[in-house]
UniProtKB/TrEMBL annotation:
One GO BP annotation of this record: cell division
Reaction catalyzed: L-seryl-[protein] + ATP = O-phospho-L-seryl-[protein] + ADP + H(+); L-threonyl-[protein] + ATP = O-phospho-L-threonyl-[protein] + ADP + H(+)
Identification of the protein by name: cyclin-dependent kinase
Transmembrane annotation, as ranges: none
Domain Protein kinase span(s) in chain numbering: 1-190
Domain of life: Eukaryota
SMART domains, sorted: S_TKc
Enzyme class: transferase
A Pfam cross-reference name: Pkinase
GO molecular function, one term: cyclin-dependent protein serine/threonine kinase activity
Family to which this protein belongs: Belongs to the protein kinase superfamily. CMGC Ser/Thr protein kinase family. CDC2/CDKX subfamily.
Family matches, as Gene3D superfamilies: Transferase(Phosphotransferase) domain 1
Organism expressing this protein natively: Forsythia ovata
PANTHER family the UniProt entry points to: CELL DIVISION PROTEIN KINASE (PTHR24056), CYCLIN-DEPENDENT KINASE A-1 (PTHR24056:SF548)
Length: 196
């Protein structure tokens, strides 16, 4: 492994944005995520810097499992101090200090990585949790109890509500409604790709 995905995107901007390259990389990322989720592992710090490329820049490997946790059940209680991941890839339920988080938190990060591969920019920029959360809500809308039951228990809902328009299944605010890696791999988008 010679470089990470972030370095690759910065160095080879045109090649990194090629649709077939993005498709192949996303497929490999989802395959890796599906594998460790099937083995009850939550990565908790997925980001381009933790995705390594081989010397031919064709195969990816997920790396840095230092924050990962093994889960014996699909949902487990943690506190914010248990999750130290990178702010721009943190799911809203983590920023809001929800004690229940699941494999859906990894899928949020995959959605952020996918958007970054396509645009060559962070989807949600900021250094502090409240900055990231503000950017998430300005792009995806502020949820209500219908979109995310229990949200009002996590966050002050006196914010101006934005019209919620969300078509990206990996970036659904409610973690219970976020797509799984296996379901994402079944999408028509990957119909013409061979297993790597």
């Amino acid at each position: 492994m010679k470089r990470d995905l972030k370095n690759y995107m910065d160095t080879f901007q045109e090649t990194a944005r090629m649709p077939d390259k993005i498709k192949s990389f996303l497929y490999q990322i989802l395959s890796g995520v599906a594998y460790f989720h099937a083995h009850k592992i939550l990565h908790r710090d997925l980001k381009p810097q933790n995705i390594l490329l081989d010397s031919e820049q064709k195969k990816l490997k997920l790396a840095d499992f230092g924050l990962s946790r093994t889960l014996d059940i699909p949902s487990i209680r943690y506190t914010r101090s248990d999750y130290l991941g990178t702010p721009s890839y943190k799911a809203p339920e983590l920023i809001l200090d929800s004690q229940n988080y699941t494999y859906a938190t990894d899928m949020w990060a995959v959605g952020c990585i996918f958007a970054e591969m396509v645009t060559q920019n962070l989807l949600f920029e900021g250094q502090l949790d409240f900055e990231i959360l503000g950017n998430i809500f300005s792009i995806l809308g502020t949820p209500d109890e219908i979109a995310w039951p229990g949200f009002t228990d996590l966050y002050d809902t006196d914010l101006k509500l934005f019209q919620h328009q969300n078509s990206k299944q990996m970036l659904v605010l409610n973690p219970d409604r976020r797509i799984t890696a296996l379901d994402a791999l079944k999408h028509q988008y990957f119909a013409d790709i061979e297993s790597v």
